[in-house]
Design goal:
mainly alpha, Helix Hairpins, 2 domains, 7 helices, 0% strand, disordered N terminus, DnaJ-domain-containing protein, unfolded protein binding, transmembrane helix, DnaJ_domain, chaperone
């Protein structure tokens, strides 16, 4: 651990970040234009270890400056790793500055998306204000419609429930009434049948007694001669 810190300190003294405002990728990497890709890659690892925003070697610098330096190192590495970086750099087009500008634009887009600005942001004049007001009015209209629908459902739901419950109770009462009537009819019909059977039994008994009395009269002596 101590050896690693000493190496970082030595590397920090060996590869300081350039102080002039527009350093080239080779100046940031402290390499000559004839450096190989292996040297560029190794130097990039050294610079990342020394100039990363979380590195203890650059804690004396403000967070914004640390972030800017690290972006420049990454952009310089991307420019040096490109096969045409040397030719483009020698021409009027600076790939390092283009890469840095591209990264800054991407960062700005991400910040804008995170901030979630409304679509009407940046519009000026009465036309933009009218467009924004129209959007706000449409939003309010949608909210009012949703509130009205919810209120309607909440108001009608109890009535529908009670109506359905009333219909079910009516059917239950009708079924119970029909069942009670059927039971009464069964009792009355059974009682009538029992009365009819009793009458037939009594009639049969009466006929049997009368027949027996006739036989007795006919069997007595002298009844036939008289």
């Amino acid at each position: 651990m101590v050896a690693h810190i000493r190496h970082a300190s030595t590397s920090a003294n060996s590869f300081p970040f350039p102080t002039h405002p527009h350093p080239t990728p080779h100046q940031i990497f402290h390499l000559s234009p004839s450096a190989s890709q292996q040297e560029i890659k190794a130097r990039y690892y050294d610079l990342v270890r020394l100039h990363h925003p979380d590195s203890p070697m650059c804690q004396h610098i403000s967070p914004s400056e640390r972030h800017t330096r690290f972006q420049r190192i990454s952009a310089a590495y991307a420019a040096l790793r490109s096969p045409d970086s040397r030719g483009l750099y020698e021409s009027s087009v600076d790939p390092f500055r283009e890469e840095l500008a591209r990264r800054r634009r991407a960062q700005m887009r991400r910040e804008a998306e995170m901030a979630r600005h409304p679509r009407s942001a940046g519009m000026a004049g009465a036309g933009g204000e009218e467009w924004a007001a129209g959007g706000d009015d449409r939003w309010k209209d949608r909210v009012m419609i949703m509130i009205g629908l919810v209120s309607l459902v909440v108001g009608l739901y109890p009535a529908l429930i009670w109506q359905n419950m009333g219909a079910v109770d009516g059917r239950h009462r009708a079924a119970a009434k029909n069942l009670a009537q059927a039971r009464r009819d069964a009792r009355e019909h059974g009682q009538e049948q029992r009365l009819q059977i009793r009458k037939r039994v009594e009639e049969n008994r009466r006929l049997a007694r009368e027949a027996k009395e006739r036989e007795t009269e006919l069997s007595e002596p002298g009844v036939g001669t008289q």
